[in-house]
Amino acid sequence: MSWFIKFITSSLGQKLVMSLTGLFLILFLLVHLLGNMQLFRDDDGYAFNAYTKFMTHNPLIEAVAILLYIFILLHSIQGVALWLQNRRSRGPQAYAVKVTKTTGTNSFASKNMASLGILIFVFLAIHMGDFWWKMKNGTAPVVQYEGEEYQDLYTIVVASFQVDWIVILYLVAMVGLFFHLLHGFQSAFQTLGINHKKYTPAIKFLGWVYAILVPLLFAAMPIYVYFFK
Amino acid sequence: MKLTLKIWRQKDAKSKGGFETYTVEASTHMSFLEMLDVLNESLIREKKEPVAFEHDCREGICGACSLVINGQPHGPWAKTTTCQLHMRQYKDGDTIVVEPYRAVAFPVLKDLVVDRSSFERIIQAGGFISVNTGQPQDANSIPIDLDTASKAFDAASCIGCGACVAACPNSSAMLFTSAKVAHLNMLPQGKVEAQQRVLNMVKQMDLEGFGRCSNITACEAECPKGISIENIARMNREYWAASLGSEKIA
What we know:
Distance between the termini of chain B: 62 Å
Number of helices of chain A: 9
Shape of chain B: elongated
Radius of gyration of chain B: 20 Å
Order of helices and strands of chain A: HHHHHHEEHHH
Number of helices of chain B: 8
Helix content of chain A: over 70%
CATH superfamily of chain A: Fumarate reductase/succinate dehydrogenase, transmembrane subunit
Structural class of chain B: alpha+beta
Oligomer: heterodimer
Largest sheet of chain B: 5 strands, mixed
Radius of gyration of chain A: 20 Å
Shape of chain A: globular
Largest interface: A-B, 43 and 51 residues
Strand order of the largest sheet of chain B: 2-1-5-3-4
CATH superfamily of the largest domain in chain B: Alpha-helical ferredoxin
CATH topology of the largest domain in chain B: Fumarate Reductase Iron-sulfur Protein, Chain B, domain 2
CATH architecture of chain A: Up-down Bundle
CATH architecture of the largest domain in chain B: Orthogonal Bundle
Order of helices and strands of chain B: EEHEEEEEHHHHHHH
Number of domains of chain B: 2
CATH class of chain A: Mainly Alpha
Distance between the termini of chain A: 55 Å
């Protein structure tokens, strides 16, 4: 195993960890988004609560969820470690004047991945504390549809999204997520070693579409609830 | 034209440095280094210590000249070194800030001179290529297609100046290292030691204390030779393949 530890803790190994966990989280976002779209249905939360029940009672999904928690932690811890390492590499004396030109990346996003990541992590902690924690501890209210009991996450979500600061937090976090994805999506492929005249333009285009569409639809949820529920 | 220069002065590696302001009379025909020569001649006449900066070929091929000029390694012109930057870029009355490269792996020795021997050690870690000695063989006896040869040549055009490290917000040396890895690993002559080469060079790069690439691409934007980050992707691929695929355990 010593060769594997050496490999995974090398500079390129650490990058691989960021890339692979990042790609997994990108995939997770899409699944999470598609599920949460049930929120837009006008059925007093039946579809949303049924989806919630499915997600919390399927053993396969429970197993993948554990993997997800591990990957979120790995991505965060490795990211902070890389950020600290890079600050050390730059040294104590900063440039008096610094211009950072880039080719083909958004320089705001690419230079601020760590800060954006920390913003998203803080959001995630509040987000999970608000919804996930209540579900796991059974403190959510219970609702009945056709005699069957469901945890009423829908009511919790609707109540949360009436609170001004929570809605603002969600919107700020989604702007952060947009920039994080804008760089992260295409960067993950470059780190994997995929830089190809045929595929890279397509990956970059897909990265833009994904980075705009996913945070936008997520942001639409608190806005929809705030104004229309 | 009259220019104001703010130049980083530092007596030696151990001293604390700081900016000094000078005025210099320059002509638009001068190169940036010639303008610094004029400044130094006037400093010598005044019995002051001239500004230490590195230079050698003064035609953009040796990689000796460095300097971060108004926040950009080798100044504002794309794909040029400091010696190729000419004073016609500037107007009378301009202020120019000149700093050494900043990276832990490139410690300042004096004024604008940094120690770039960490790059030499990465090259040394790359080792040798196995070729037959004796009479040179006919060039066409080693088959290689033109595209691969051209790509290897593009990578080989890296002059090891260190602008990539100076430009990178992470002080990463991955553009340099990957250019050297890609250059030899793409050629038939470099195939024999290809796996060991990438493993050893990356190991040395990490030991020198360079940062980790996060694909910002500032290196590519500032490289005086236009080395592409395609080389970094290639190094990544070769490194995974060598780490996971080779039978070496240690």
